[in-house]
Amino acid sequence: MAGVSSNDKISPFSFRNGSLYCENIEIDKLFDDSIPNDRQWVPAGPFAVYTFDDPITPAYVYSAAGIKQNVKSYVDGLRHANLNAKIGYAIKANPNIWLVEKMKESGVGMIIAVSGYEVLLALKAGFTGEDILLNGNGKQPWEIKMAIDLGVLLNVDSVFDAQQIARVHQDIESSNEVKVLLRIRPVPAKDEESKLKTHEYVNTAENSKFGFEFSELDQVLAALNSREKIKVVGVHCHFGSCLTNPKVYEWLGTTVTDITTELDKRGIAVKIFNVGGGVGIDYHNIPKGLPKQVEEEIKTVGNFTERFKDIEPVSSISDFLLALAKTIPKDCELILEPGRSLIGNAGILVCKNLGTKVSYGKKFLVVDGSMNEVIRPCLYGSHHQVFPTKINVTEKWTTYDVVGPVCESADFLAKNVPMQTSSTYMAVMDCGAYCSSMASRYNMRPQVTEILVDDGLWRKIRRRDTFEECYLKYYDDVKRYDN
Ligand SMILES: Cc1ncc(COP(=O)(O)O)c(C=O)c1O
């Protein structure tokens, strides 16, 4: 059955008259005329005084409308599937507080955290302890203490995690009730169709470091039962990321039945079912608004259709939810943990075109963005579309590797993509999730500016790191310890 709305149909970025727009704002105009250069001042001290204009690019640009549409796809899809669920945002996808606040405003009711700092950020964004879930296979005592103090729901990942949660509860002599979910590794699918077709690094089912198996259930429960105030309220299962086919939820069906039966036998009622996140997005999407012949040329030059013919199209959020409705017992409260499908297509990385070069016949377009800002291609071999922000109707499209200035051969943003090289800026598409949050400062490159476009206005929602911020940490807390 077709879904009511589809995340893959929404694009907050589109071309108009050959220029890329974020909502109603033209990217080139934004970068050429609007965003001011920040002047940087490198103070005296061990270094000479030096001032320079900090470049604006690379910079992430996000669309608030894109976020709202994505949340709405979940809200509408839940209604359509007649499901009662809390939408929890997996904040690791992108923890920029302005975006998190936008999520809250749009209908996200929970934050899924994996670290103490993510919990604190969720509080800063206006969520309460009870609206937060702390996941993780390596929770540290200070994080567990924080969760207990704040009333955060905890996911139990292993026997040692259960023991540690009980130990911390005892050590801090807490009288707080602690609600926990058991993270069970899903029972593997037998049929080919419902197998996970996702990269092994984002597969959290078979052979994964996350969760525990049924055989360990009694050990986990024994540890938790050592503290009367620790209550098992439900179960958590997460398959992995970039899921395309809702059929995986039929695989979940077996796990659901098995786990509820086992817990029932031990007198535990499963009240909450947390099915994780993982709904994929279409990373091969061509933005709307390109002239037909340009779109055709792009597909021919990049051999686009042929290259990606085996990529399974991503089903709509609604179809995933309809599949879940068939699987989850009606009397269970449901928690969803999407990350990518809420923010992935709502952000791009705008890079400056630095120039082209040829090496043994291979053409490279060098831009100022890099693996530091978009690590997915080199980490998982992921594909991101890259487009000039201004299309030149008289220029031929040619195949290029788009690479950054970082000193690694793995520093590429896209390989063998159709490209025109006359545009001042290039846009790496679908960078809303797992790009800024995974960014690094390799090669002493600062973490970059972030811009939010909202209702015809834009604002800087993250300042680029200054040189001082990058180097002062080498001095701030340095003490010499004598033996
Ligand atoms: C437990 C858990 N929940 C939610 C997510 C979010 O996944 P996604 O961003 O693919 O929706 C992840 C990501 O790996 C995860 O491990």
TrEMBL record:
<comment type="similarity">
    <text>Belongs to the Orn/Lys/Arg decarboxylase class-II family.</text>
</comment>
<keyword id="KW-0663">Pyridoxal phosphate</keyword>
<feature type="domain" description="Orn/DAP/Arg decarboxylase 2 N-terminal">
    <location>
        <begin position="79"/>
        <end position="342"/>
    </location>
</feature>
<dbReference type="InterPro" id="IPR022657">
    <property type="entry name" value="De-COase2_CS"/>
</dbReference>
<dbReference type="InterPro" id="IPR002986">
    <property type="entry name" value="DAP_deCOOHase_LysA"/>
</dbReference>
<dbReference type="InterPro" id="IPR022644">
    <property type="entry name" value="De-COase2_N"/>
</dbReference>
<dbReference type="InterPro" id="IPR022643">
    <property type="entry name" value="De-COase2_C"/>
</dbReference>
<dbReference type="Pfam" id="PF02784">
    <property type="entry name" value="Orn_Arg_deC_N"/>
</dbReference>
<dbReference type="InterPro" id="IPR029066">
    <property type="entry name" value="PLP-binding_barrel"/>
</dbReference>
<keyword id="KW-0456">Lyase</keyword>
<dbReference type="InterPro" id="IPR000183">
    <property type="entry name" value="Orn/DAP/Arg_de-COase"/>
</dbReference>
<dbReference type="Pfam" id="PF00278">
    <property type="entry name" value="Orn_DAP_Arg_deC"/>
</dbReference>
<protein>
    <recommendedName>
        <fullName>Diaminopimelate decarboxylase</fullName>
    </recommendedName>
</protein>
<dbReference type="InterPro" id="IPR009006">
    <property type="entry name" value="Ala_racemase/Decarboxylase_C"/>
</dbReference>
<feature type="domain" description="Orn/DAP/Arg decarboxylase 2 C-terminal">
    <location>
        <begin position="60"/>
        <end position="432"/>
    </location>
</feature>
<keyword id="KW-0210">Decarboxylase</keyword>
